[in-house]
Input
Amino acid sequence: MLEMLLQLLGELLIQLLGEALVELGFHAIAEPFRKPPNPWLAAAGYLMLGAIVGGLSVLAVPAHLVSTHFLRMANLLLTPVAAGFCMAAAGAWRARRGQALLRIDRFAYGYLFALSFALMRFWLAC
Output
């Protein structure tokens, strides 16, 4: 039981690390482009970016961190939700500090990024 929880936690940490790196990069390049984009276009962008980062994560960690098919399906359903909540919490923390927020600092966009990330790992990892 503890092993299953640690495996799911490992998948969550990989997704959060990917999102944090993307967010850091977006904060660095977003300043000149403060005009808000179309939300549907932004959602599609986060889906594509999550798929790219998820595919690249397979190069770094080629094996599934979750051992059974049942846990992989649970990971596919639960981890993006948890990552979305973590990104929303990070966004709320940034808002309280008066820092600039990006769309990925909201639950829906963080969830979309993490979902496409998890799908790529699900399909491509060994």
